[in-house]
Amino acid sequence: MPERLAEMLLDLWTPLIILWITLPPCIYMAPMNQSQVLMSGSPLELNRLSEEQRILNRSKRGWVWNQMFVLEEFSGPEPILVGRLHTDLDPGSKKIKYILSGDGAGTIFQINDITGDIHAIKRLDREEKAEYTLTAQAVDWETNKPLEPPSEFIIKVQDINDNAPEFLNGPYHATVPEMSILGTSVTNVTATDADDPVYGNSAKLVYSILEGQPYFSIEPETAIIKTALPNMDREAKEEYLVVIQAKDMGGHSGGLSGTTTLTVTLTDVNDNPPKFAQSLYHFSVPEDVVLGTAIGRVKANDQDIGENAQSSYDIIDGDGTALFEITSDAQAQDGIIRLRKPLDFETKKSYTLKVEAANVHIDPRFSGRGPFKDTTTVKIVVEDADEPPVFSSPTYLLEVHENAALNSVIGQVTARDPDITSSPIRFSIDRHTDLERQFNINADDGKITLATPLDRELSVWHNITIIATEIRNHSQISRVPVAIKVLDVNDNAPEFASEYEAFLCENGKPGQVIQTVSAMDKDDPKNGHYFLYSLLPEMVNNPNFTIKKNEDNSLSILAKHNGFNRQKQEVYLLPIIISDSGNPPLSSTSTLTIRVCGCSSDGVVQSCNVEAYVLPIGLSMGALIAILACIILLLVIVVLFVTLRRHKNEPLIIKDDEDVRENIIRYDDEGGGEEDTEAFDIATLQNPDGINGFLPPLLSLVLMVMHRTS
Ligand SMILES: *[C@@H]1O[C@H](CO)[C@@H](O)[C@H](O)[C@H]1NC(C)=O
Ligand SMILES: *[C@@H]1O[C@H](CO)[C@@H](O)[C@H](O)[C@H]1NC(C)=O
Question: Where does the Cadherin domain lie (predicted)?
Answer without folding.
Answer: 87-167, 168-276, 277-391, 392-496, 496-618
